[in-house]
Structure formats: structure tokens, C-alpha cells
Fold Xylose isomerase.
Amino acid sequence: MTDFFSGIEPIKFDPAAQSDLAYRHYDPDEMVMGKRLEDHLRFAVAWWHSFVWEGGDPFGGRTFDRPWFGNEMDLAKMKADVAFEMFALLGQPFYCFHDVDIRPEGDSFAENTRNLEEIVDYLGEKMAAGGPKLLWGTANLFSHRRFMSGASTNPDPDVFAFSAATVKTCMDATHKLGGENYLLWGGREGYETLLNTDLGRESEQMGRFLSMVVEYKHKIGYKGGILIEPKPQEPTKHQYDYDVATVFGTLQRFGLEKDIQVNIEQGHAILAGHSFEHEIATAGALGILGSIDMNRNDYQSGWDTDQFPNNVPEVALAYYEILKAGGFVTGGTNFDSKLRRQSLDPQDLIAAHVGAMDVCARGLKAAAAMIEDGGLEAARAERYAGWETPEGKALLDSDLSAIADRVLKEGINPLPRSGRQERLENYINRFV
């Protein structure tokens, strides 16, 4: 045991609590639409922001003083001890990591692999003793300078090889820990300028890399999901994995749309010029909705600030689309969120997650109430009702000449109909 969280008791559900270290809305055993709230939300803590981030920004360095900061195995194990102590306090069912979050960085691929295997065994012991499960593991293929020009899309085949080998070890680690998904996080899969870029070649490299991942999944008998995360403008100017629609186009091009789903982050949706619910609804319509990273942006900054969610109406609309798509299967709600650099205390880290979990619980319950009420879907059905008539159903099987003849013969001259947007916005506000 460490003393980092000393004095903090396990977080309980207490709607009347005055402390900010209590759940007021998240009761994991509450039944919502026939399922426990915990099983709907499937919360996960992000290892990197919670235990790795040092509190720096472009104008200033580290502000957090954590006793486990360093690049030695003993410190990595201390970090794991603290992490699992926090997990026990929060009681969330999952966590997520990159390889570099949990292991020391070595001088070679072989040393990285040895370090990863040692710390995975350590995490496995903690999980077996009652710790949370692994929602997904992934490889960090963007922080080290070797990845400055990408990983799978790198012009240097040695970087491609190093990246592929690293993903192999991380898939092995995820498989060993019983991870429910493996995530492909393409942080530098893009380019800055076409002047030095063979876009067609890089796209082919990325497609082959994705195919290798799927092939290896089947080779080792891994039953979990494979996810890819859209990452617009983060950090390269032109990302090949810009948004859900772009990712789907790539998957479809290489015949992988049945094998890989998306992990959608709220902050990335905003950077792509979309809303979170738009990206989720798009993934649901395309059949590739896997998991989400729950956070928010500072809308004045124009960058992915990874703040903890605090906007119930936004969250409710996101969970509405998730529930409409059938809910999570192997995915869940990962808090890819970090403290502000002035929030120094251990209590801040706990309180941030408690508040975020409450916001998500409130949002999901509001979304479930809207679905059970049926008002929004009834309004949508009314708007598209004409397509359910015999004439509407026949229209898409017709051709331009036949349609033109019908319009002329029947004197079709439609008038516009109200979209009733404000009324629907008022309807949403009745639930949130």
C-alpha cells in the first residue's frame, strides 16, 4: 500500500451527500432499461492522463509532483500500486493503457518488450486480486522521436517494422490481461505537407498495417474487439483517420469494415467540426460503433484540452445515440480526461472522476428516459412518413424518367414542411 490517497475513503452512492467525494447519480446497481447502470456505462480510467501526465503546457513545464515519476521499473510498479488503489476507491470496472504508460522506456525493442512483459505480470496479479478489468490496451506510436513522420505511414520501412513489432507485443499483453479490446491509436498517421509526401503510398501502408493487426488477432485466438480512434489535427495537419466517415472509407477500401470498429472521443469530434453525437450516430449507422473516450474541449481554445465532462445535455445526446445503436458490447466509457495543471492534490484526481461519472450517469438516465418516452423517434418517424407509403418505397427502385413522368402526371408540387427544431430542443430540455 502507498499513502498517496491516505485519508480518502471508497466512494459511495449517497444522493444527499455534501462532500464532492460521493456519487449522487451513479448507483452501479440501478436498473435502467433492464440493465445495471454499471453495465450500460462500463467506466474506465485512462492510465496516461491520471498517472503519467506531469501538468505541463506549451508555456510551462511540470506542475505535478508524483513520487512515481521516473523511468525505472520500481517506479513503474509504484505507479501501478497507486493506480489500483485509486481504482479501488472509485470502484469503476475497467482501465486503459498505452505500453509506455505502464513500462519504463528501454534502449531497444528487446528491452521495451522485457519491461512490458514484467509489468504486465505485475498488473495481472493485481487484477487477479480483485482489480478492474482491461477495457483496452494500445501502443504509443507517436511520442518518441522515431515516430515524428508516423508509424504505419512512415517513409522509413524500419519505423514501420518497429511499429508493427511493438503492436504485436502490445496485442500479446492485452490478450494476456484479458483485455476486451485492442486499440489502434494513430496519433501521427498523417502528414504536414504534400511537398515531401507520397499520399497514395502512405495510405496503402496504413491499410496493410491494419490488415496485419486483424490477421494477428485471429492467429493468437484473441476474441476481443479491434478499435481505431479518429484523430483530426492531432498532431499532424492532415490526418488519414480524420473522423468516423474517413475511417470507415479506409476500412471499406481494405475490406476491414467488419473487423474494426471505432473508439470516438468527444474532443476529437469537435476538432473535426462535428458534434460528439454526430460521430456516434454516424458510427452507429455504419455499424462500426465500438467505444468512446469521454472528455470535453475548451471551446475557446481550439485544441483538444481533454477536460473532464460536465455538460449533462451534451452527454445525454451522446448516450441517446449509443443506446439507440444497441449500447456497448465490448466497448465502454473511458475517461480520456486530465486534471488542469493547477489541480495538484490527490483529492482533485478522485473528485474529477467522481463528478464525471455522475455527469455520465445523469446523461445516460436522461437518454434512457427519452428513448422510453419515444417522443424524439416519433417526431423523426412523422418527418419521414412519406417514405413509408407505397409511392415512397417504390421511389428508390425507380429511375429518373419514370419519376419525371409521375411528377408530371400527378402534378406533384410539394410545399416545404417545418423541421420543428426549436420544439425538439425544448423536448430534450424536459429530460436534462
